[in-house]
Amino acid sequence: MTFEHIKQILKTKTVGIAGCGGLGSNCAVALARVGVGRLVIADFDLVQEGNLNRQFYFYDQIGMLKVAALKQNLFRINPDVRVNTFDIRLCQSDIIEIYSKCDVIVEAFDKPEMKYMILDAVHHYLPDKFLVMGVGMAGWGDNNLIKSRKSDKLIICGDELNAIAADCPPLAPRVGVVANMQANAVLEILLGTNEYQIHTEN
Amino acid sequence: MKIILNNKEEAFEGDQLTINELLQAKNFTFKMLVIKVNNQIVKKTEYDLALVKNGDDVMVLHLISGG
Question: Which of A60, A71, A133, A193 could be disulfide-bonded to A83 (CB atoms 3.0-4.6 Å)?
Answer without folding.
Answer: A71
